[in-house]
Amino acid sequence: MTPTITAFERSPDGGRGLARDLRVRWALEEVGQPYDVRLVSFAAMKQPAHLALHPFGQIPTYEEGDLALFESGAIVLYVAERHAGLLPDDANARVRAIAWMFAAVNTVEPPIMELVIVRILEGDKPWAAGRLPLVVDRIRNRLQQLSVRLGDADWLDGAFSAGDLMMVHALLRLRPSGVLDEFPTLAAYVARGEARPAYQRAFAAQLAVASGAA
Ligand SMILES: N[C@@H](CCC(=O)N[C@@H](CS)C(=O)NCC(=O)O)C(=O)O
């Protein structure tokens, strides 16, 4: 059965691939699972029909038969568990890859999202200028730790996994700030992720929506 995911009808990032449907598209492309996309407006995301799928009125969602899922990490994990290619066979290595998925959304992504909040949503507030360097320092701290762990490896724990997929996408949001480039090993790690054919296909698909070609 072909799953259906939701994505922004008009992504605020204009097609830079930062919206979280990109992770789901990427995972589906990595495992070779075709999918349909239902585009939703901001208004529709807050309506009962979408809230029944996603209690917080956001994208992405994933529907397959009578299964409806929300949370990009949960969706990617579901895809990774159902198909070969995104999680190792070895039980310990598998749970370590899952731990990296949690690290991406729970440890690395939160300070990155704080930067978005302080720059964009709170940019005009009196505390924004004072808070900005604190937030950037927290990000630098995390990236330093992550880059030490990555070392000169290509991926976080052996072969490319769903953990890398989630981590690369979380880090991508940092690129415009210049902070990612302060950590050349992480910048190269993200570039390796973006170079994967599955990423390229996922990126092109969401860009086609933004540019009106889809
Ligand atoms: N933790 C959620 C976050 C979902 C999320 O923040 N989605 C954004 C797009 S990337 C969204 O729908 N924003 C619109 C809104 O919150 O109204 C996930 O990983 O799926």
Provide a compact summary of the structure.
By secondary structure, this protein is α+β, with helices and mostly antiparallel strands.
Bound molecules: glutathione
Element-by-element helix/strand order: EHEHHEEHHHHHH
Q: State the major sheet.
A: 4 strands, mixed
What form results from the Cα inertia axes?
globular
Count of discrete alpha- or pi-helical segments spanning 4 or more residues:
9
Query: Strand pairing plus helix content: what structural class?
Result: alpha+beta
Radius of gyration in whole Å, from Cα? 17 Å
Fraction of helical residues:
55-70%
Mean pLDDT: 97
Distance between the termini: 22 Å
- Runs in which pLDDT lies below 50 for 5 or more consecutive residues are none
Task: Report what the structure shows.
This protein starts with a strand and ends with a helix. The radius of gyration is 17 Å and the shape is globular. With 214 residues, the protein is of the alpha+beta class. It contains nine helices and four strands, in the order βαβααββαααααα. A four-stranded mixed beta sheet has the order 2-1-3-4. The mean pLDDT is 97. β1, α1 and β2 form a beta-alpha-beta unit. Helix content is 57%, strand content 8%. The structure holds glutathione (GSH). The site of glutathione has 10 residues, from α4.
